[in-house]
Design goal:
75% of the residues lie in helices and 0% in strands. It contains four helices and no strands.
Length: 124
């Protein structure tokens, strides 16, 4: 799950950066405000990559997805992109958990089967 979710978050990192460049064109927003908010969101994307497996990590990721969709009030295209990334987040969590379960099942089967028998080591 961690690999898929981290990939989604890294993609969001770049999208947030590009959305900040678009938001800079808005005369009502100061560049310091745009880059402060965007910088915090970009930092959270990277920080979340490290805490995905901890309790609440996935829930925090959902909060980030909601914030990304809400950023559409500043950059309207973000409504669409935020929805796309929310769908990607869902898929990353859903299928990532399935992959983790399959890996655990295969590891348990391998542990049950015991070590593979091969040629005896030479005592020379």
């Amino acid at each position: 799950m961690r690999t898929l979710c981290s990939s989604t978050l890294i993609g969001e990192f770049f999208v947030i950066g590009f959305a900040a460049l678009v938001a800079m064109k808005d005369d009502d927003l100061s560049s310091s405000t745009v880059w402060t908010v965007s910088g915090i969101a970009m930092f959270l994307c990277l920080a979340l990559c490290g805490v995905l497996t901890r309790p609440g990590g996935v829930a925090f990721g959902w909060a980030l997805q909601i914030a990304l969709i809400a950023s559409g009030f500043v950059v309207p295209t973000m409504f669409f992109l935020g929805a796309i990334f929310a769908a990607l987040w869902w898929a990353s969590v859903h299928y990532g958990r399935k992959v983790d379960e399959a890996k655990a099942r295969f590891a348990a089967q391998a542990a049950q089967a015991g070590p593979a028998e091969g040629p005896a080591p030479d005592a020379a």
